[in-house]
Specification:
- The chain has 167 residues and is of the alpha+beta class.
- It has a single domain, classed as Gcn5-related N-acetyltransferase (GNAT) (Aminopeptidase), CATH 3.40.630.30.
- It is 34% helix and 20% strand.
- The chain has four helices and five strands, in the order βααβββαβα.
- β2 and β3 form a beta hairpin.
- α1 crosses α2.
- The protein is globular, with a radius of gyration of 16 Å.
- It starts with 8 loop residues before the first strand and ends in a 16-residue tail after the last helix.
């Protein structure tokens, strides 16, 4: 079980000034995932990650959420949420309004309540917009993240099965 976030933790909207630090955390998380499953994950170039996050922030509208968690003025985690497209009338999927979540916490701050603080803020944001669900992907070998999400009430809906066709 994780401890509560440090009292000085502040969750706030991300700004363009945060993009470099968000990219640092994301690239470190990519290294972690690539070590867990090198067939599925890679480590992108830092500059490309900066470009991606800067572009997402600039394109953000009222249906997107971009947050950072900071402790003593240092960004230690980030969360993005994007509205999930509703399934068409011809789909068997239930037509729930929801958002897709992406989250990253600096390695030195994992297990200290930062992820929980970010997820709590995202849930409050989604409820305020009348959303029914939040959805996220978690790498199968990433047991720590899975335990966090399960503790927060997230449950398995489907497995994504992948068959490599080259080799």
């Amino acid at each position: 079980m994780t401890d509560a976030a440090p009292a000085q933790t502040r969750v706030r909207p991300a700004t363009s000034d945060d993009v470099g630090r968000i990219a640092d955390i994301y690239v470190a998380m990519a290294r972690y995932h690539a070590a867990l499953d090198p067939a599925e994950y890679r480590v992108p170039e830092h500059a490309a990650v900066v470009t991606r996050f800067r572009s997402e922030l600039q394109a953000a509208d009222e249906v997107d959420l971009h947050l950072v968690a900071e402790v003593e003025g240092v960004v230690v985690g980030s969360l993005d949420a994007f509205m999930r497209p509703l399934p068409s009338e011809g789909s068997m999927r239930m037509p729930r309004r929801g958002a897709l979540i992406g989250i990253a916490v600096d390695e030195g701050w994992r297990g200290r309540g930062i992820g929980t603080a970010l997820m709590d803020a995202a849930e409050a944001w989604a409820r305020g917009r009348g959303y029914d669900t939040l959805e996220l992907d978690v790498a199968d070998p990433n047991g720590d993240a899975r335990r966090l999400y399960e503790r927060l009430g997230y449950g398995l809906v489907a497995h994504t099965l992948v068959k490599p066709l080259n080799g």
